[in-house]
């Protein structure tokens, strides 16, 4: 994980944000282009890191892995007009890569597709919707009879070097600045020097600026005004 984060970062950046879709919302029998085309204004995953969801799609670099969507889920329709540019690609890898380039233009994006889904056999908790099949695909309507336990699910996971990290690091820096460490002598009992602590804060402040964009600058100003 550390080496992957280093690969996705440059220009002084060091950390990445994690996102995932568990399970990946794939309707049974639908193709990957159909699924991705349903997400025109948002990505099909949620942030796992403690960052606010960004209002625009933007990142510097990312690595995305999709599991459990086999190549046979997309069949090219010869002689018919493609419904979207994504429908012109034949392999799952090409479809996912093209989607990332479309949603995040200019970003360095790598994608990997694994046919094997994630197993959810006991002791994995069965907190899934009754609309999920045993293989983790969505049904278009509730089943007539209680469905069997979900044994596997398709999953999408993403690591992003993204401007949302500016807000996270900026907020952490502000919280730490509010601490009056001189009133907490035990804070430095482990051997941390006050000057080293201040130097670390300065490094955190510098790191947050590495993720700053014009949009994120406006976000930070709005937060400071609300404070």
UniProtKB/TrEMBL annotation:
Gene Ontology cellular-component annotations: mitochondrion
One BP term from GO: mitochondrion organization
Protein name stated in the entry: MSTO1 protein
Entries under PANTHER family matching the protein: MITOCHONDRIAL DISTRIBUTION REGULATOR MISATO (PTHR13391), PROTEIN MISATO HOMOLOG 1 (PTHR13391:SF0)
InterPro entries per UniProt: DML1/Misato (IPR049942)
Organism listed in the record: Oreotrochilus melanogaster
Residues passing through the membrane, by range: none
